[in-house]
Amino acid sequence: MPKFKKPDGNFDIDTYITPILPQPWLHYLPKPISHFFGYRTDTPKKRPDVIIWLWTWIGAFGGVSVIEAVFQRNPYFAVTHNVPMIVGSFVLPLPNLPPSSSE
To answer: Which of 4, 34, 53, 76 can pair with 26 through a Cys bridge, CB separation 3.0 to 4.6 Å?
Structure first.
């Protein structure tokens, strides 16, 4: 098991998971098929974490937007089953706001 290091902001889960996973078998497949499944003969250069975080945010925002569009455009959810919009559950909770009063 690898030693724990002082956190530097770049957490790599592969450091901890790779020793317990079986060896990859993709290099046995023909090159186009193994490339499609993600096998590369040479290691790609490491991208900055900020770029990875940016694309992660864009992907999550796009996924939630698609779910929002489906729930808004399809009357099956709102009319037939009276389902609330799902995006409300993805909103960051704001604990400092006073409770709303219905007067």
So the answer is: 34
